[in-house]
Design a protein that fits this description.
This protein has 355 residues and is an alpha+beta fold. Helix content is 19%, strand content 32%. It folds into three domains: 1-84, SH3 type barrels; 96-218, Smr-associated-like (Immunoglobulin-like); 232-351, Ribosomal Protein S8, Chain: A, domain 1 (2-Layer Sandwich), CATH 3.30.1370.110. It has a five-stranded antiparallel sheet, with no helix packed on it. A four-stranded antiparallel sheet has the order 10-7-6-13, with no helix packed on it. Strands 9-8-11-12 form a four-stranded antiparallel sheet, with no helix packed on it. Helix 3 packs parallel to helix 5 (280-299) and helix 5 runs parallel beside helix 6.
Amino acid sequence: MNFKKGDKVRFLNDVGGGTVVRILENKMIEVLTEDDFEIPVLASDLVKVSSAENKAFAQEPETVKPQKMQEPEQWEPEDESINQVVYVEGNDDLNLSLALVQSVEGQKSASGVDLYLINDSNWQAQTLLFESFPNKQLLVFNSLLESNSKVWIKHFPEKDLSQFPSLTVQSLVYHIDPHQSHPAVSKEIAINPLKLLRSKGFVENDFFESEALIIPFHLPDPSPKEAYVKSEENLKQLLEDKLNNPRSTKNDNETEKLPEFFEVDLHIHELVDDFKHLSNTEMVEIQMKTFHSRLNAALKQHQVKKMVFIHGVGAGVLKKEIHKALSTTYPQLYFQDASFKEYGFGATMIIIRRG
């Protein structure tokens, strides 16, 4: 559907509407809302208000006459000038990413982060993006992610970052000239809220003037020498190795010099490189092994007074296991929920009181 300045529109996924004040790039429309705020909205998330509907809303309720149901509008090809395919020489390998940026020029929003989708390749990607919750998924994007482009998705206020949702992205990928298909892409992405609250992982990049957290969900295919197909046997060996040598315990805890206060992130993606083949029980086993290893190392060094274990919120299983271990195995230690301002409900602080 084509829009022009002055059109009255309503939001498909939200209450209310407004007036089109500007046509932006990447199929974005700037809308002046009924509250006098100018916000960018995807054209696919807007519907034009008909003149009949406009007139009906202007009348008093008792004088409004029933409107004859209109036939649905016929789909028309969009202006080809809007959908021109952009090719970049040498950018033939599929490279798709999510990006979180701390500030967006021209946005009238409070502090927080803005979510983008990035297609850094010559492929086209028809993409779905969901916010994933324990019992449901909320669709936040359903459109074409064009070649060599980035698309703004939504803003997350700072107050919501401690409960940042998991994201699920799915893409059907194809080439227009020459016509060529690509295996579908599907990825679940869990983002550590601490990286958003503390700006960890935000770095200079080629896509934004501001520092951003770039999270690839499809990188260029590895060379044959780098490709590695896991069999059932080496998966068992992989699990055994991870249980015995998670990343956070590679250093020799007997000789590692620990500070007076330090934190340990027990999110599974911080402990192992590849966890998608692990069951929930196996992941908790790795996390608890790391917990005992790091705590025992701290107890052997007299300078350590406090430590924080970041376990996240989730279903609360890991937190319960940690508190159970502290109450039974380490009754001499005092523990409590860590600072809500810094960690939300996702961390436990242990205070080591030495006699």
